Amino acid sequence: MPSCLLVNLAVLEQKTKRGHEAATHLLEATQEMESAVGKTHPDLAKALESYAEVLRRMGRKPEARQAAQRAREIRHFLATTVDWHDLKTPAQ
Q1: Is residue 90 within 8 Å of 2, Cβ to Cβ?
Q2: What is the C-alpha separation between 30 and 27, in angstroms, rounded?
Q3: pLDDT at residue 27 tops 80
Q4: Distance between CA atoms of 52 and 55, rounded to whole angstroms?
Q5: Do 47 and 68 contact (CB within 8 A), yes or no?
Q6: Measured at the alpha carbon of residue 74, what is the angle toward residues 40 and 92, in degrees to the nearest 5?
Q7: Please, are residues 11 and 50 in contact by the beta-carbon 8 Å criterion?
Q8: How many Cα atoms occupy the beta-carbon half-sphere of 11 within 13 Å?
Q9: Cα–Cα distance between 7 and 11 in angstroms, integer?
């Protein structure tokens, strides 16, 4: 399943109180995104932020902090070094 669909599915699952499924799909989406668009793409940062929020709500705070930190690192990298015209778009 394409990573963008997994993220959307996870958002729906989170809203319907299915945190475990949401976390599973967000983890899968982040792994697919890293392969498809690289480790510093803004869509990956957004998925990691969603993943961190799901983990936080599930009480998995150390993992949530780690995912949130990765997202912050990507955003910092993008803000300081990237020419936005060079970014790949995720596969649909």
Answers
A1: yes
A2: 5
A3: yes
A4: 5
A5: no
A6: 45
A7: yes
A8: 11
A9: 6
**Quick one: how far is CA 58 from the chain centroid?**
16
The span from the CA of 42 to the CA of 60, in Å, is: 24
Name the pTM for this structure. Answer: 0.79
H or E stretch covering 67: helix 61-81
Q: Measuring CA to CA, which residue among 12, 15, 13, 43 is closest to residue 29? A: 43
Q: Are the beta carbons of 42 and 68 closer than 8 angstroms?
A: no
Q: Which CATH number fits domain 3-82: 1.10.3210.10, 1.25.40.10, 3.30.70.3270, 1.10.10.60?
A: 1.25.40.10
Query: What are the sequence ranges of the domains in the chain?
Result: 3-82
From CA 31, how far away is CA 48, in angstroms rounded?
10
Q: For 57-81, how does the pLDDT look when each residue is reduced to its tens digit (9 = 90+)?
A: 999 999 999 999 999 999 999 988 8
